[in-house]
Amino acid sequence: MKNQSLTCDSPVFNQSMMSADSALDFLLGSALAPVKTKVVGLDDALGRVLSEDINSSINVPGFDNSAMDGYTIALGAQHLEKVGLSFAIVDRIPAGSTGNELHEGSAARIFTGAPVPKGANTVIMQEECQLSEDGTQITINRTIKLNENIRPTGNDIVEGGIILNKGRQLQPQDISLAASVGVGELRVFSKIKVGVFFTGDELVEPGNPLTAGKIYNSNRYALVALLKQVGCEVINLGNIEDKLQSTIDALSSLSGQCDLIMTTGGVSVGEEDHVKGAVESLGELNLWKIRMKPGKPLAFGKVGNTAFIGLPGNPVSSFVTFGVFALPFIKKMQGNSQHQINAIKVQANFDCKRARPRREYARVRLDYSTGSAQANLFPKQGSDVMSSIVWADGIIEIPEDRTFTAGELLNYYPLSELTR
């Protein structure tokens, strides 16, 4: 894609706006650590967060075993550094069985994973062994070393050692590791409950016809899907009547059964925006203007003792602020030790000719056609252009108060980091 140039915001901005970094720090500092836990079986553990360290009660492997199909030999000092030695085959040891003790100068047929018998001290792969016609001995036409192809006891895991740490979000490989040491159940943090509802007389549910002045309620389905994808239990009140008392009733209902309440839009000071007043009547609310684009408005507060986050109403703004702010907050509430989003450095395939007062999170797609990854901008970067999120594979962070030319290394966040 040909180099592009990014247009700039007006230089006239209220300097009292909060930086994105300060807003995130405040949110993370306000996130309460989880307390409730439960025990789940391995089949139900995927995506859950460990509430305690997991130690192994055994060594893995629990015995010296063969890393190859071949022959295990009891070598003596006289056998080392010699070529063309022959050994009598006196045993056969498949995986799952235990062989007899080998005496010096003897060998046993052995298979991958089978225990190395007492007396044996090396394993030679079968391709390097010449079997006699009667099958009673092998000859090896190279020098032999001690402990070849033997996996020693505890080579993978040592008894008593920590195999999985508290705060780890469990992946398939973690569950496999737990199973390999005989752990059948895991204690995890309970899922956090997030309550959502949506206001706005202009909103129409998908599947119904639009009338003049109406729009489809896409934010509802985006937010619920994002919350479910990150392992939350969602209590969804759906669309409620756009009135103050209805909003108060919804908040009151959710505060008694949720760890977090989230909404999109409706927290400005307009006469038809009742969320702000309803939250303030039941608790406290901070309305922030953040030096970022898209997603300048963000609300955080409490309804009773329940945390509240109000995302912007524009669909792209809502999506981006969820990934940048709400997701790390939620992950910390879940007990996830890896709650910060991780960036990688990629080259920008566009110019920024004029410094902007707000940090921008632009929708991009990586291009590998020249070898190293270069980030191409979606042509339309408006906060209403949800197709930019579908087209993009990530978001690039364009720093405030800086200019640069194509080739500049910038922070890139894969969408997988912002949505999981």
Supply the key terms:
420 residues; alpha/beta; Molybdenum Cofactor Biosythetic Enzyme, Chain A; Molybdopterin biosynthesis moea protein, domain 2; Molybdopterin biosynthesis moeA protein, domain 3; 6-stranded mixed sheet; 8 helices; 28 strands; 19% helix; 30% strand; elongated
Question: How does this model look, in words?
Answer:
- By secondary structure, this protein is of the alpha/beta class.
- It folds into three domains: 264 residues, MoaB/Mog-like domain (Molybdenum Cofactor Biosythetic Enzyme, Chain A); 53 residues, Alpha-Beta Complex (Molybdopterin biosynthesis moea protein, domain 2), CATH 3.90.105; 87 residues, Molybdopterin biosynthesis moeA protein, domain 3.
- 19% of the residues lie in helices and 30% in strands.
- The chain contains eight helices and 28 strands.
- The strands form eight sheets. Strands 8-5-7-6-10-9 form a six-stranded mixed beta sheet, with no helix packed on it. It has a six-stranded mixed beta sheet with strand order 17-14-18-22-21-19, sandwiched between helices. The protein has a five-stranded mixed β-barrel with strand order 23-26-25-27-28.
- Helix 4 packs across helix 5.
- It is elongated.
- About 2% of the residues have low confidence.
Query: Which CATH class of the largest domain?
Result: Alpha Beta
Question: How many domains comprise the coordinates?
Answer: 3
Number of helices, counting only DSSP H or I runs of 4 residues or more? 8
Helix vs. strand class: alpha/beta
In the CATH hierarchy, the architecture of the largest domain is: 3-Layer(aba) Sandwich
